[in-house]
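During the reporting period, our protein records have gained a structure token line. A sample record is set out beneath this paragraph:
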Amino acid sequence: MDSITKSLLKNFAETQGFSDTLSETDLFEHFAAYSLLSHEVGSPISKSDLEGISAGKSKGIDTIACCVNDKIIFDVEELKNYKSLSLNVDMFFLQSKTTEGFSDAEAGSFLDTVIDLFKDTPSYKSPEFDSFREIYTELLTNLSRITFNLHCYYITLGVKHEGETSLQTTIKLKKQALDAYTLFEQVEIELIDKSKLINKHKKAINPLKATFKFDNKNTLYHIPKVEEAYIGFIPFSEFKKLILDEEGDKIKSLFNDNLRDFLGIENSVNEGIKKTLDQGRFNEFSLLNNGITVVADNNLGKGNTLVLENYQIVNGCQTSNVLYQCRNLPNIDEVLIPLKVVITKDSDLRDAIILSTNSQSKFEESELFALTEFQKTLEDYYNSQQQYDNLYYERRTNQYASRGISRTNIVDIKEQLKSFMAMFYNIPHIVAGNVGKVAKNYKNKFFQKEHNPQPYYISGLISMKWDKLQKEDDNFKEFNKCRYHIFMGFRILCEDITFHEEYIQKTNKYSKESLNGDKILVFEKLLENLRDDEKFKSIINEAITIFKQLDYKRPKGAYSNPITQEFIIKLNDISRNHVTN
């Protein structure tokens, strides 16, 4: 491996928090998956995501990722979150090699395994293959509202040579075999060489940047905390430079700060937008559409040429996606789109813009305000504790991208939600597989503006410390899929007896008063034990010892409610014995 790739790989391992004991081959597989898939999904990819899509030692394939409407699906249960929507399903298969050439035999073996996975009775078996097949089989039950796309990437550190070779012939034949399933709208088989992989990686780790002309604009002056602000109209010929990458593909990470994902063309509002464009009523489009709001950290351009850095579309996700769907219509470049651009680094103002520009949506304003207010409170609390733990809360995507902070010291919203709900609401089996279900069914239980931020911080801290344990000792990796059970176990083993008895009486749920309380003894005790490395490791090991008494290795053990309930009973018995002794 050349020195440039080694350097990128080393930095990737450090920032993502991968163990020094992880083999170079396994690390490269994660590196390749992160570099390529970061451009294909609509949310940041974490270390746990990469571990979740790894195919392990499965034959011929290193990574399998099934994306539904630009979101990675890890468990068949998550499909219930999309039951009323039309689905765009992208299936990604990766084979990654650190060799410097492309092997005809390896490519053939890789693609043969992919072909086999879509047979009625596949020949190759592995837990990862079984998990994929379960998701795939469930998707087939809703085939009428699904569009399937298949992407196969064979990645090496070699140089790709154009022209007709035996390898190209092999790829052509395998593509014909995949096309023969008549299942896929698109079948893509691509050779990724070192140059393309490194370029993809650099784009994945750097903030978004776009250059476009904004001729028809008015400048807004003297707005506090705003460096620049413009409002006007922009033709689609320029607007697409904001939403498309150099290869003409949609930049899916553009909408990370948007409050709602794309709802699909079948949505009544989106259907109306598309109908206006399909009928060529471009002038009406400009009048009828509320427009797009873009917020960026910097504008490096001058005059009418804007060069936006680290930008997001915070309002206009639906319009942007419909325009993308219609990008090949005749004369579409002439459509004028209402556009607002705000250059600010102030997070409070950014939140206010997101809130106000989304006020016409179906979200209740009170819910939006509560969410935003608590997120800021939580971020402030994390900042107040940095002298002790050096931990940061990332409530906005790429919030710390320019500060060189390791991902191992950052807790994002998704991990915060999962660890908090597992620890304090006893649902580790749900958060392990279906975050959407948590957000839907427990929406009044988390991120409430009156909540004490301390238990959230505790659950973020235990997540960080667990990752560090894995780096130091490979023995903990066996329980990584069940880590949310272990987090819950840590809390129960640490509880004060008075609070513990009250907790049991409340059917294993903290009372609202407990989460709202300013100073709760159990929170102080949890934090004390978390910050003492010896105590932390000892209690974690005790939780694992108890957990090992269960049938956790059975298929889908991490998602099993009976296992959670049995674990709680055993933990409570141990906790009582501690107090008695």
Remarks:
- Residues 3-205 form one domain.
